[in-house]
Design brief:
This protein has one domain: Rossmann fold (3-Layer(aba) Sandwich), CATH 3.40.50.300. Helix content is 44%, strand content 17%.
């Protein structure tokens, strides 16, 4: 039985308005954190033209997403095993045409996910940075969207821009916010409330009642930690190298929060993700 047939699974798109805020590192370590909580996790590197996850985790990848679209390989042939038993679907590197998927490529992706028979509890989608159509495409398909930002003014501005685009153009209403690379919880909540306040003023500035339905939820924060950057340079997950670090403890709190959330509002199977891919007309 493939995972589109009755398997309960949560699909989470991890996005950021700006590059350099640590989104991919967050995604990789969140996957490992969920795995430590006995969840089976597949990470989809959806920055399709620029391979990132496999580089961060130093994974040996013989094939990647370009071999799927060319028809040379099946999805199951591409997936490699990462630390703590996580699975990774790698992107390609330096393939510009994959930065904007066409209809044929979308259908090919849907067909392959439908046929995949792996056991998965969580599908984490590491999108590219910015507000491209690929980013919107995968955010629309996912059940949940996590926006990663930092205290840098440009990062907050771009995170706000991404939220605004996803809401106004694609009617996405619910977002979780994860603040990275801050000194403490107070700085993180200050960043979150600045984003939330901007959304409030934006809503008040619009006459449309529908703008009142947008929701931003604070997921948590990752503290600045020298060990995190050290792990990146070693191409290892900080949860694997430094499980007792401050960054690792914060990540496990985030993973536990996600794992323990009430799933009543989450549609239950991978079919939702596949249906989202079909509906996405970017």
């Amino acid at each position: 039985m493939n995972i589109a047939e009755g398997k309960t699974i949560r699909t989470i798109a991890v996005a950021s308005g700006k590059g350099g805020v640590g989104k991919t590192n967050i995604t990789a370590n969140l996957a490992i954190g969920l795995s430590r909580l006995n969840k089976k996790v597949l990470v989809f590197d959806a920055d399709l033209g620029l391979s990132n996850i496999d580089v961060i985790l130093n994974l040996a990848t013989k094939y990647n997403i370009k071999h799927l679209f060319s028809g040379e390989k099946k999805l199951k042939d591409l997936i490699v095993e990462g630390p703590m038993g996580i699975k990774v679907l790698p992107a390609s590197s330096g393939i510009q045409e994959l930065t904007e998927l066409d209809e044929f490529q979308r259908l090919r992706l849907i067909e392959e996910f439908e046929a995949y028979d792996g056991d998965v509890d969580y599908l984490l989608i590491d999108t590219s940075s910015g507000i491209s159509t690929n980013v919107a495409f995968f955010c629309m398909a996912a059940q949940e969207i996590v926006i990663v930002t930092s205290a840098e003014p440009t990062a907050m501005t771009d995170a706000y821009a991404l939220i605004k685009v996803l809401f106004t153009k694609y009617q996405e209403k619910n977002f979780k916010v994860l603040v990275n690379n801050v000194k403490d919880a107070k700085e993180a909540t200050d960043v979150f409330w600045r984003l939330a306040t901007a959304a409030v003023f934006w809503r008040l500035a619009t006459a449309a009642e529908k703008f009142l339905s947008i929701s931003l939820d604070y997921l948590g924060f990752m503290p600045y930690d020298n060990l995190l950057q050290k792990a990146v340079r070693q191409q290892k997950a900080f949860l694997e190298l430094y499980p007792n670090s401050g960054a690792a403890k914060s990540m496990m709190q985030i993973a536990d929060k996600i794992s323990s959330e009430n799933n009543n509002n989450v549609k239950g199977t991978l079919q939702f993700f596949l249906g989202g891919l079909l509906r996405a007309k970017c």
